[in-house]
Design a protein that fits this description.
The protein is mainly beta. The chain is about 0% helix and about 50% strand.
Length: about 120
């Protein structure tokens, strides 16, 4: 069972930057596809960015493309989300997730970290 712990959220003004981190408890994390999701009040959870275990393939939601960067350091069992040019509509709870190979859904989730962007 992999435990994921997010950090780095907070309050920032529009146009600012934040870097989220997600630390995994197990080295097997390096074999998993990983992602960041977010959920704003009253809205469904949405996929923000996704990264394969090797880091060779990235996906970004259109709403964050060009502003957010997902990356991982498998030597540290850590996933990152660099968020630049933040907008008030980026305000949400951000979750990291990991998927065991060949599974169809994400198996492990963090507890979430709040990101609030003021206008």
């Amino acid at each position: 069972q992999v435990q994921l712990v997010e950090s780095g959220g907070g309050l920032v003004q529009a146009g600012g930057s934040l870097r989220l981190s997600c630390a995994a408890s197990e080295r097997t994390f390096s074999n998993y596809k990983v992602a960041w999701f977010r959920q704003a009040p009253g809205k469904e959870r949405e996929l923000v960015a996704q990264l394969t275990w090797s880091g060779s393939t990235r996906y970004y939601a259109d709403s964050v493309k060009g502003r957010f960067t997902i990356s991982r350091d498998n030597t540290k069992n850590t996933l990152y989300l660099q968020m630049n040019s933040l907008k008030p509509e980026d305000t949400a709870v951000y979750y990291c997730a990991a998927q065991i190979p060949l599974r169809a859904t994400y198996d492990f989730w963090g507890q979430g970290t709040q990101v609030t962007v003021s206008s």
